[in-house]
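Quick one:
INPUT:
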C-alpha cells in the first residue's frame, strides 16, 4: 500500500500530514499526487469525501515551497464554486502549510475585501476564489494572473450547474499557457469534457469509483407518510420531522436537514425554531454574513440543526454530524448519497432518515435502485388515535396554541412562508446554547477585515500568520 512518504512530498508538508493524523493516502491522493509533482496536468474524477482537496493541495504546497510571490501576481489559483467550499479549501491549506512560509488570500463574495486587497498587493502564493469575485477583482485592475503557475478548478460539475463555465474559460485564458492545471469534477458531462480537452494538456486522468453506495457506518431509514388531507400535507410533514427528531432523543447530537427547495429550507427552519428547536437555514439566497455565521455555529457545536439546500451543503465537511434528515426525497438519486454522506464520516456512526410522501415514492425507488438496497421502513412515530387537529394543537407550545394552529393549519392558498412568519414574530427565541466563541477577538481587534462574520477557522490561519 502506498504511504505518504513514498510520494515525494516536501518534508514540511509530510510533517503536517502526520500531525493531521493521516496514515495512508486515499486512492485519489495516491493517484493524483505523483503526476502532479512531475509537473503534469491532472484530471481528477472524484467527489467530495474522497480526500480530493488534499490531492491537489499537497502537491501544490510542495511545488510552491520554493520561490516567492510577487506583488499582485499570485503564484497559484484555486477556483471553487461556492464561498463555503473556498473557505474549506483555505482551511485545508492552513492545515498542510503550517510548517511552510506561504501566504494565501481568499476572495469570496459577500464579505469586505480590504485586507485581502492588501495581501494581494503584497503578493500571495495561493489565491483561493470564487470565479465571479476573482473576475471583479481582475477587472478593477487589482490583480494580474500572468504569474499563475498552478491553477485548480474544484467541483467543475457544480460550476457547470451554477453557470460559471464562461467565467472559468475566461480565467483560463487570463493565465499563462504554461501553467499546470488540476481539474476536479465528480462527473464528466459533455461540457466539462470540452473544457478539459481545450485547457488541459495530456492530463493524467485519475478516477475514483463513483460513490454509489453509502458508507456502511450509516444506518438508514425511511418514514412513509400519508397526509390526512392534501392541504395539511406540509404542516403534517413538519410535525413528522419533529417527531422523528424527538424519537432519536439524545443520540441526535446535531443534524443536517435537507430540503429540495430553498423556500422549504426557510419554512422548515422557522417552523423548527418556533417549536423550540435550535435550527437555522442555509441556502444560496441568504446573505454571506448569515451563511458564515450559521455554518460556523454548526461546525463548532453551537447550532444543533442546520436546514440546508443541496447546493449550500454540497461538499461541506463537518466531521461529527450524528444525523441527516431528508425532509424530501431528493429529485436526483446521487444527491441522496451526497446528503447522507454528511453523517457517518471518518468511520463514525451516523443515521440518515428520509421522509417520503406518496408523491415521492418514484424518487425513493430511484434512490434504492442507485444504492442497490432497500431502505428499511420506519414506524411512523406520530401514530395516534387523535384527529390530526388535536394532535397538532397538543404538540404546539401551549402559550401560542391558537396562533400555531392557525399557521400550521393554514389553507393551501396562503403562502407557506407568510403562515410561518405570521407566528414567528411572536415566538420567543430559544436562547443560544452557549455564547459564541470569538477566539478572543474583540470588535476592534479584527484580524483580516472580514467583519465578525467570518468563520473562526478562517480567522485562525490569519491570526497565526499575522503573529508570525
Ligand atoms: P475531501 O474529499 O477533500 O472533502 O476530504 C474529506 C475528509 O477526509 C476531510 O475531512 C479530510 O480532512 C479527510 N482526509 C483527507 N485525506 C485523508 C487521509 N489520507 N486520511 C484520512 N483522512 C483524510
Amino acid at each position: 500500500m502506498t504511504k505518504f512518504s513514498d510520494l515525494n512530498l516536501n518534508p514540511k508538508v509530510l510533517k503536517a500530514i502526520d500531525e493531521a493524523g493521516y496514515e495512508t493516502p486515499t486512492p485519489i491522493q495516491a493517484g493524483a499526487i505523483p503526476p502532479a509533482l512531475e509537473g503534469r496536468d491532472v484530471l481528477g474524477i472524484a467527489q467530495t469525501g474522497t480526500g480530493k482537496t488534499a490531492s491537489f493541495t499537497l502537491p501544490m504546497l510542495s511545488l510552491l515551497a520554493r520561490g516567492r510571490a510577487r506583488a499582485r501576481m499570485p503564484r497559484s489559483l484555486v477556483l471553487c464554486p461556492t464561498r463555503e467550499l473556498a473557505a474549506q479549501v483555505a482551511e485545508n491549506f492552513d492545515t498542510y502549510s503550517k510548517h511552510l512560509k506561504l501566504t494565501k488570500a481568499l476572495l469570496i463574495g459577500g464579505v469586505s475585501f480590504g485586507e485581502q486587497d492588501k495581501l494581494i498587493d503584497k503578493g500571495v502564493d495561493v489565491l483561493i476564489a470564487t470565479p465571479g469575485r476573482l473576475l471583479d477583482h481582475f477587472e478593477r485592475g487589482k490583480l494580474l494572473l500572468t504569474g499563475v503557475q498552478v491553477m485548480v478548478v474544484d467541483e467543475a460539475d457544480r460550476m457547470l450547474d451554477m453557470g460559471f463555465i464562461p467565467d472559468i474559460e475566461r480565467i483560463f485564458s487570463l493565465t499563462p499557457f504554461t501553467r499546470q492545471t488540476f481539474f476536479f469534477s465528480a462527473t464528466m458531462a459533455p461540457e466539462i469534457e470540452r473544457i478539459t480537452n481545450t485547457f488541459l494538456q495530456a492530463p493524467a486522468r485519475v478516477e475514483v469509483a463513483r460513490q454509489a453506495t453509502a458508507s456502511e457506518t450509516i444506518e438508514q431509514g425511511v418514514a412513509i407518510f400519508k397526509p390526512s388531507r392534501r392541504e395539511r400535507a406540509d404542516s403534517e410533514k413538519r410535525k413528522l420531522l419533529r417527531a422523528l427528531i424527538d424519537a432519536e432523543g439524545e443520540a441526535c447530537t446535531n443534524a443536517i436537514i435537507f430540503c429540495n427547495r430553498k423556500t422549504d429550507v426557510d419554512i422548515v427552519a422557522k417552523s423548527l425554531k418556533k417549536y423550540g428547536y435550535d435550527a437555522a437555514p442555509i441556502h444560496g439566497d441568504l446573505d454571506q454574513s448569515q451563511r458564515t455565521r450559521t455554518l460556523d455555529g454548526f461546525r463548532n457545536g453551537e447550532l444543533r440543526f442546520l436546514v440546508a439546500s443541496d447546493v449550500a451543503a454540497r461538499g461541506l465537511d463537518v466531521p461529527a454530524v450524528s444525523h441527516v434528515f431528508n425532509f424530501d426525497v431528493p429529485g436526483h438519486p446521487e444527491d441522496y448519497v451526497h446528503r447522507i454522506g454528511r453523517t457517518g464520516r471518518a468511520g463514525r456512526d451516523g443515521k440518515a432518515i428520509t421522509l417520503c410522501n406518496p408523491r415521492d415514492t418514484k424518487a425513493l425507488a430511484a434512490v434504492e435502485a442507485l444504492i442497490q438496497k432497500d431502505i428499511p421502513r420506519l414506524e411512523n412515530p406520530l401514530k395516534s388515535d387523535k384527529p390530526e387537529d388535536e394532535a397538532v394543537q397538543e404538540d404546539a407550545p401551549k402559550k401560542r396554541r391558537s396562533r400555531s394552529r392557525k399557521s400550521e393549519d393554514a389553507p393551501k392558498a396562503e403562502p407557506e412562508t407568510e403562515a410561518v412568519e405570521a407566528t414567528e414574530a411572536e415566538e420567543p427565541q430559544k436562547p443560544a446554547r452557549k455564547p459564541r466563541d470569538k477566539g478572543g477577538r474583540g470588535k476592534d481587534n479584527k484580524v483580516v477585515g472580514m467583519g465578525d462574520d467570518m468563520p473562526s477557522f478562517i480567522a485562525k490561519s490569519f491570526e497565526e500568520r499575522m503573529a508570525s
